Automatic annotation (TrEMBL):
Species of origin: Nocardia camponoti
Gene Ontology molecular-function annotations: DNA-binding transcription factor activity; transcription cis-regulatory region binding
Name this polypeptide is given: HTH tetR-type domain-containing protein
Pfam families registered for this protein in UniProt: TetR_N
DNA-binding region: 31-50
PROSITE patterns documented for this protein: HTH_TETR_1, HTH_TETR_2
Domain HTH tetR-type: 8-66
Alphabetized UniProt keyword annotations: DNA-binding, Transcription, Transcription regulation
InterPro entries (UniProt xref): DNA-bd_HTH_TetR-type_CS, Homeodomain-like_sf, HTH-type_TetR-like_transc_reg, HTH_TetR
Length: 66
């Protein structure tokens, strides 16, 4: 599998996991550890794609608006 395709799959997994965690716990109560666990990715993979919880939340909202 090409690196770019794998990166897209990882990013999509993080977004889906984050959306679920934000929905269940709310933004304030959601932790990056919970999102990592839900997404089944490493901490490094999450931070490669998103620099912060705020940036991740914006991406989740943007994806929902597409």
């Amino acid at each position: 599998m090409a690196r770019q395709a794998r990166a897209e799959i990882t990013r999509d997994s993080v977004l889906a996991g984050a959306a679920d965690v934000f929905l269940r716990l709310g933004y304030a109560n959601a932790s990056l550890s919970e999102i990592i666990s839900q997404s089944n990715v490493t901490k490094g993979a999450l931070y490669f794609h998103f620099g912060s919880k705020e940036e991740l939340a914006r991406a989740v909202v943007d994806q929902g608006n597409e």
